[in-house]
Here is the input.
Amino acid sequence: MAHPSQLGFQDAASPVMEELLHFHDHTLMIVFLISTLVLYIIVAMVTTKLTDKLILDSQVIEIIWTLLPAMILILIALPSLRILYLMDEINDPHLTIKAMGHQWYWSYEYTDYEDLGFDSYMIPTQDLAPGQFRLLETDHRMVVPLNSPTRILISADDVLHSWAVPSLGIKMDAVPGRLNQTAFITSRPGVFFGQCSEICGANHSFMPIVVEAVPLEHFENWSSMMLQDT
Amino acid sequence: RLFCREKADFSDVKMLLTIRKQLRNHPALIPLFFFIGGGAAMSLMYLARLGLRNPDVSWDRKNNPEPWNKLSPNYQYKFFTVNMDYSKLKKDRPDF
Here is the structure.
């Protein structure tokens, strides 16, 4: 989850998010290098006493500062397109979960084998137990098995919402009347938090998403227990 | 003075000759033409690919009205795949 005064992304919990992190590091390094160079040039130009009023143009430097930015842009574009196509690949998910956005909670349906469905409301601040996170915890978490490709179908019941979990690198709009599909693999066990990312009314900031990745046996026990409760 | 001309001319051949003369005097423009031209060419080719190969597009309403209903499980419709090999997928859905 996010921590105070955090500057970078949250730690990756899925392979796609790892790719995004590395791409961001790569691009940000290029940006820092260019900005440092430009800042140095600005300072050098402003603080020099040398002037040459007769320079009109130079073919060599024009070629250099056309070729170099073009190559840098290609160096950024190729990994970016690769990740873009990678994120679109949904390779044989083992589990399909439906996440429906309502005002102002999420509901999850696991209907592959049995009819499991439950709502996920935020825990109000006054009901938090010690150690729980304010505005992020929910009463029921979306539990998924570890290391298993999971497809999630996202839609909404009333207005636009958006299902987002930054550690997994997922954000997908929940549009009423439309079914959006995305997939992920959780590469480590843990609890991953996200928040509704499309303005949806008074409690838009108070409908968080919690994904809990557990080994398969624990997932099976949890789903049996949830089925008995409902 | 990059764009000074001697007389106004509107024919395409004269325009190309003018450009070639300017390029000889300013070879720095060659990489510019290369990258901008290449980018434009690549964009147009991808647009053409999308228009002609995308199963969401129907040109012939009489003979091929809904090509999105005739998708094959083994054909790669996307331009580029990183990890998936569509030719190796199994077809485990019924035919209609």
